[in-house]
Amino acid sequence: MRRLRACLGAAAAVGLAAAGTTALVAGSASGATSALGNRWYAAAPYLMPLDNDPPDPAAIMDATGLKAFQLAFVLAPNGGGCSPTWGGTAAVSSDTAVQSVVNTIRAKGGDVSVSIGGYGGTKLGQVCSDAAATAAAYQQVITKYGLHAIDFDLEEPEYENTAAIKNEIGAAKILQQNNPGLYVSVTTAGTADGTGWFGKQMLLEAKSQGFTPNNFSIMPFDGGFSGAASQTSALTNFNQILQSTFGWDQATAYAHEGFSGMNGRSDTGEYFTQADFQTVLDYATSHNMDRFTFWSLNRDRQCTPADNGGRTSGTCSSVAQNSWDFAKYSVKFAGATPPSSTPTPTPTPPGTGCKPAWSSTAVYTAGNEVSYNSHNWKAKWWTQNETPVASEWGVWQDEGAC
Q1: pTM summary value
Q2: By CB neighbour count within 10 A (0-12 exposed, 13-18 middle, 19+ buried), where does 81 fall?
Q3: Which residue of the set 155, 158, 257, 399 is catalytic?
Q4: What is the spatial distance between Cα 331 and Cα 292, in angstroms, rounded to a whole number?
Q5: Which of 294, 194, 296 is nearest to 241 (CA)?
Q6: Residue 386 annotated to the active site
């Protein structure tokens, strides 16, 4: 559930050919002439090109060998209407800023996908009259940028709207039919059980419409997760959901399954380190999963020492790292080898020290901070004698180790 994502701003091609991926040829004003292999689009990390202190994609490509970027997010206009915008404010039809980013990436041999939706904002599926109108709006984006890949990020609050999800899934099917070779991913919220009720309803809608994208991806963070083990468990459970929903065997389900993580500190105070990413990457590759991506490249750099570990940011990870450490896992998933780099900085305990110790007899109100079991915790509401534990619905918010 990408709360922060929407709220804070609203061996190369030869090696990939062996993966059996599809190349789509397209001509447009963007200058695109050919696609990368699908494995690159499957590995493309999210990048906000207009918000959250956008990093230079050329510098990331030079440092990591990354070739594909997932640009986020296309939404309906804030003032209403069925036309695509960046973040609800910048019309795609008149855009030059994102086009410049796309041109920079393509000039270096890379390419982009575009993600529609995200957490918050008004989605086109909510306001367009039907699936055909929704698809027509998205076709403008495909045509404008000469896209070979697109991502439908279906989550709160849109995926709670049955009509909107019907429009989005219908639009995805139309775009897939009208743009042969288009790589389509569908991303939704992850839970310990794989995905929640609304995610399962979205899968049933896809089944009812006879729509099969390249993958359905879940986001196993912001839901009481703790490191890689909880994420791989959720991916295993989601695989079973895909099997039961579509009648696939296990291997087929994994071939249509994806992972979308969050690097560093999540919106709810979970931590995912480079070691966690490696574990999930090993799981994804060993199970022949179709996608491995993360939110976001804007966050793939270390915070200042004063901020490290103490907050969730749209522009840094809150864990010890070199810039673009997490992007290198995407490069590995794509089948390429990242350049060698300096060792990752030695992690330091996050935060500035432990808060006063929690007391079972004290009364705490919203915003009060305590320490317990070598972690700092913040009360969400009035409480007494409730032991601080990590729980999505509990009274205490884990603020990290101290």
Answers
A1: 0.81
A2: middle
A3: 155
A4: 10
A5: 194
A6: no
